[in-house]
Design a protein that fits this description.
- The protein is of the alpha+beta class.
- The protein folds into three domains: 159 residues, no CATH class; 137 residues, no CATH class; 110 residues, no CATH class.
- Helices cover 25% and strands 26% of the residues.
- The chain has a seven-stranded antiparallel sheet with strand order 2-3-4-5-1-6-7, sandwiched between helices. A six-stranded mixed sheet has the order 8-9-10-14-13-11. Strands 19-18-17-16-20 form a five-stranded antiparallel sheet.
- A hairpin with a 3-residue loop joins β17 and β18.
- α5 packs across α6.
- It is globular and about 65 Å long.
- The N and C termini lie far apart (53 Å).
């Protein structure tokens, strides 16, 4: 029995798992324009006609299964607003994506009953099609935009996607550093509930803030956080919050706490909840208020709550992307002396596990040499500052701290920013 079988929300097969691959110019490529497919083990079947399309064909791969690719005629460009609101893209990625149109549609024909594995297969097929001249991909369930670089990074390893691939995050604000109406798309499409944050502080969109949002998404998927449910302890300190159905929130909130000007279409109203402060004993009569934790700078020592199941999923992703960590270590992290951390699940004296951060000095395919960076509470044989060798089987998370933000198994964009500024960073380090 695999990890997917032990996590109920992950065991699901969607009616459709599809994406559009973006190319410049809106002209559908001919089937002969994909010489890279064979190099990736993908066979292109016989071409057939399809309404509104130049051609359609079946793709086959020994491990990924089957997909259908359709070359669309007169494909529109991406809406400017969709590109502008997407969180986590740099300006060059936005320009590249804005220049593309969804000229190839790709849909899984053999989607596994595993949301994360199916999403990975979709991206693998999309990357194989985009690898010649494509500028990116749009996941039609999550509405997430994948730049060409992000797609290549995700498809460079075999790990299932992170939960962050199931949704996209839109930030609506007049200026980047102003409070935003932050909201997800994609969770409703898999039968869950999308989330809204009113007046979200800029820190919530990245770093620890995005960790907190991922924890909240896990809580929604696991059923711990739901509209009309009770208070959920998302983090300490100050992490108690509840979810109020969007329609109920809009009817009852104070004028200064509105999500946006509205009126809202179904996509921004149905299967959607607003993160609010706990109701308190006057909750039945008091207007719902946006969660204070998400409207202010986050506490420095914020302890975010992840369930055991979520922690196991994160560990699976961390171990699956370990080759990415070791490659980044060799590429620039050691040279720039960036702090490299790994969280290990150490057996405790009472038979459980304690998740402890270690500073990594060296890493290979089998494990790491590292120094314990935290004071253990339930491991008598381990002390802060103790250095040793540890097997990869203990790994539950990894981080590389950089001037562009933390690089992690679910957030690789800072690595792309560092590559684009390596000469300046090297010069700054040389200058002391």
């Amino acid at each position: 029995m695999g990890l997917a079988d032990l996590i109920p929300w992950r065991r699901k097969r969607l009616p459709r798992t599809a994406a559009t691959v973006l190319f410049r110019g809106g002209i559908p490529p001919g089937a002969h324009e994909f010489p890279g497919l064979a190099a990736r083990g993908v066979a292109l079947g016989a071409l057939a006609a399809a309404p509104g399309a130049a051609w359609t064909a079946e793709l086959r791969h020994d491990r990924w299964g089957r997909a259908r690719v359709t070359a669309l005629r007169d494909a529109p460009a991406l809406p400017e607003e969709m590109v502008a609101l997407q969180n986590g893209l740099d300006e060059q990625e936005r320009r590249d994506l804005a220049a593309g149109s969804g000229t190839l549609a790709v849909e899984l024909l053999d989607a596994p009953e595993d949301l994360l594995a199916a999403r990975k297969r979709l991206l693998l097929f999309g990357h194989a099609l985009a690898s010649e001249d494509g500028v990116g991909l749009v996941d039609l369930q999550s509405q997430q935009l994948w730049s060409r670089q992000a797609l290549a990074e995700e498809c460079a390893h075999e790990a299932p996607t992170d939960v962050a691939a199931l949704f996209t995050l839109h930030a609506v604000a007049d200026e980047p550093q102003e409070p935003a109406w932050l909201h997800t798309h994609g969770l409703g499409a898999i039968g869950a509930c999308d989330l809204d944050v009113v007046g979200a502080h800029p820190e919530v969109r990245s770093g620890n803030g995005f960790d907190l949002l991922r924890a909240l998404v896990y809580a929604v998927l696991e059923g711990h956080l739901r509209p009309a449910g009770g208070t959920f302890a998302a983090a300490r300190p100050g992490g108690g919050l509840r979810l109020v159905a969007a329609a109920d929130y809009d009817r009852a909130c104070a004028a200064g706490d509105r999500r946006d000007q509205g009126p809202f279409d179904d996509e921004h109203l149905l299967r959607r909840g607003v993160l609010c402060a706990p109701a308190g004993w006057l909750g039945r009569w008091r207007a719902p208020r946006p969660a204070p934790l998400l409207r202010a700078p986050l506490p420095e020592r914020l302890l975010i709550h992840f369930s055991d199941a979520a922690s196991e999923l994160m560990a699976e992703r961390a171990r699956g992307t370990w080759p990415v960590f070791t490659a980044l270590l060799a590429e620039f992290a050691s040279e720039l002396e960036l702090p490299c951390l790994a969280k290990l699940g150490i057996a405790t004296d009472d038979g459980g596990r304690e998740h402890i951060w270690f500073q990594v000095h060296a890493a290979d395919a089998d494990g790491l040499e590292a120094t314990c960076a935290n004071r253990p509470f339930r491991v008598a044989g381990l002390r802060e500052g103790q250095r040793g060798r540890h097997p990869l089987s203990l790994l539950t998370e990894w981080r590389i701290m950089s001037p562009a933000g933390d690089i992690s198994p679910f957030r690789l964009q800072p690595a792309r920013l560092i590559r684009s500024h390596l000469p300046q960073l090297r010069a700054a380090k040389a200058a002391g």
